[in-house]
Design goal:
It is built from 3 helices and 7 strands; from the N terminus they run ααβββββββα. The chain is of the alpha+beta class. A 7-stranded antiparallel β-sheet has the order 4-3-2-1-7-6-5. Strand 3 and strand 4 form a beta hairpin. Helix 1 packs antiparallel against helix 2. The two termini are 26 Å apart.
Length: 167
């Protein structure tokens, strides 16, 4: 499968697992910003996992809004950096992840409560989940399972089956 097909499959799986039309619109909008940087990190023999929007914090430092993309053997974190706001992608091997847990970041000031996923590897990564994904949508459980190794990308249902809405 070509790298761009791997990326589109991950985006579509993320959208379908999110259960949110607004998430779909935002994913495709953000994809245009991150596409070239992500494609440089995706190989033709990769298996698509899931792509989702996230706000990323690494070792307590806010990196900003961006994306998370799981593949068969690694996770890609993407965010914008610098005055010119160029996309940055960092790859973390799934084999280096020592812990993954879901949590909740409490409401603070004008910010509402948000779900989080914390990933421990050489650094501690916290992704603050999109508020547009409804409670009960399978997206964050699926991401947690992929990141922790409970589910492998090649074990995910194809896009034509489980999550596809009937026409």
């Amino acid at each position: 499968m070509a790298a761009d097909e791997v990326l589109i499959d991950a985006v579509e799986r993320g959208y379908l697992a999110s259960g949110s039309e607004r998430e779909r619109e935002d994913l495709f909008r953000v994809l245009s910003v991150f596409k070239d940087a992500l494609l440089r990190e995706i190989h033709a023999d990769d298996t698509a996992g899931v792509m989702a929007l996230s706000y990323t914090i690494r070792d307590g430092k806010n990196l900003g809004a961006g994306v998370i993309l799981t593949l068969d053997d690694r996770v890609l974190f993407g965010w914008m950096k610098g005055l010119l706001k160029k996309p940055v992608i960092e790859a973390i091997p799934l084999s280096s992840i020592t812990g993954v847990e879901q949590g909740v970041r409490p409401a603070s000031g004008r910010l509402r409560e948000n779900r989080t996923i914390t990933i421990r590897a050489a650094s501690e990564w916290e992704m603050i989940c999109s508020p547009d994904v409804p409670d009960g949508a399978p997206l964050y459980g699926l991401l947690t399972d992929l990141l922790s190794g409970k589910v492998k990308a090649d074990q995910l249902p194809d896009l034509e089956s489980q999550w596809k809405e009937p026409h």
